[in-house]
Specification:
By secondary structure, the protein is an alpha/beta fold. The protein is built from ten helices and 13 strands. It has one domain: UDP-N-acetylmuramoyl-L-alanine:D-glutamate ligase (3-Layer(aba) Sandwich), CATH 3.40.1190. Strands 1, 2, 3, 4, 5, 6, 7, 8, 9, 10, 11, 12 and 13 form a 13-stranded mixed β-sheet that branches.
Length: 340
């Protein structure tokens, strides 16, 4: 982690666009009051309700928190959740001029119900998702593509966050990438169709279950399967770096003609809440690459950020100050091991 603090300073003020699906993460918290007389179910007495930008919105919030200048490109509904997302983003300085407000199309919303009793820690008991019909109208796609093309022609990086709701697609991403200025960093995180982003982008950040789904195999502790799947996806995407997040097993970093680097998890492997951790990882990874770091150094910093954010409840961010302190502490430890 040598030079991490200098890298954090270099990304201050860099311009990064986040193009993708902006999701509302809603948290309803309360205390179990009694059992209902209408049915054998528990009654939750609501104490609090909060809403935070999730998906691409969480990546944008994390970039802003570490000092990057951020522009948001995507779509939200003309509803309460959409308005709340825009307000949150603007509140931390994110440029929301690239967000379309679409009447009649609900903002994707994930409502998590957290229940507790006296002197106990709130626990998530159920999640309720409200989703729009997939895809946008062709005119709306063209409007977002114009915004993305204009951005990549002048900015340092484009982060694509595809959660499957249609604000960005592999075809749109490829079209935007063709307009990118020389040296621009383009990173992609796609929940369901990462293998279709075979555009030669800078990097991709799947988690291990996504890698398993693409190749229909089980990795677990099978290093041979991890190596084979990682190498196959790296070749298919044509990217320079592939960062695979593996939960309590840390990360694996693949690059052409380089040995695979395995990075152990930072901090405790007993996460408090993994909500949105992948968004934090790709945000810091992208910022570090845009600031001139190689992929392994960027992955190590992203690993530290991920280790910090999973110890926070809800959809959370990591600040530049927190990351700077944690990186200093991590300098005393190792930076991962090589395989292959």
């Amino acid at each position: 982690m040598r030079g991490a603090c200098a890298l954090i300073e270099r990304w201050q003020g860099l311009r990064v666009a986040v193009w993708g699906d902006f999701v509302a993460d809603e948290f309803v918290q309360g205390e179990i009051a009694r059992v209902s007389r209408e049915a054998p179910v528990l009654i939750l007495k609501q104490h609090a309700r909060t809403l935070a930008p999730g998906g691409a919105g969480n990546a944008a919030m994390n970039l802003a928190a570490i000092g990057v200048r951020v522009s948001a490109i995507g779509a939200v509904g003309d509803d309460e959740a959409g308005a709340a997302i825009v307000a949150c983003l603007r509140g931390v300085g994110v440029d929301t001029g690239g967000l379309l407000r679409i009447s009649g199309r609900p903002t994707p919303t994930k409502t998590r119900i957290l229940a507790s009793q006296a002197h106990t820690t709130p626990q998530q008991v159920i999640r309720v998702d409200r989703e729009p019909a997939p895809g946008l109208k062709p005119a709306q796609e063209r409007a977002l593509l114009r915004r993305a093309r204009a951005w990549v022609a002048r900015g340092q990086a484009l982060l694509i966050s595809d959660y499957g709701y249609g604000a960005v697609t592999p075809q749109l991403g490829k079209a935007a990438g063709e307009a990118a200025r020389s040296g621009a960093v383009i990173t992609v995180d796609s929940r369901y169709r990462l293998a279709d982003y075979n555009c030669g982008f800078t990097a991709a950040t799947p988690n291990e279950p996504e890698l398993e789904e693409i190749f229909h195999l089980r990795i677990g502790h099978d290093q041979a399967n991890l190596e084979a799947a990682g190498r196959a996806l790296l070749a298919r995407l044509g990217c320079r770096w592939l960062l695979v997040t593996r939960g309590r097993d840390g990360m694996a970093v693949f690059a052409p003609q380089c040995a695979t680097a395995l990075i152990p998890v930072h901090g405790s492997d007993q996460a408090v809440d993994v909500t949105g951790a992948g968004d934090t990882v790709i945000a810091v990874f992208t910022a570090a690459l845009a600031a001139g770091a190689d992929g392994l150094t960027a992955a190590r910093m992203a690993n530290v950020a991920g280790g910090l954010v999973v110890m926070k409840r809800g959809t959370a961010t990591v600040s530049a100050a927190e990351l700077r302190q944690a990186c200093r502490q991590a300098e005393r430890g190792g930076g991962g091991r090589r395989t292959g």
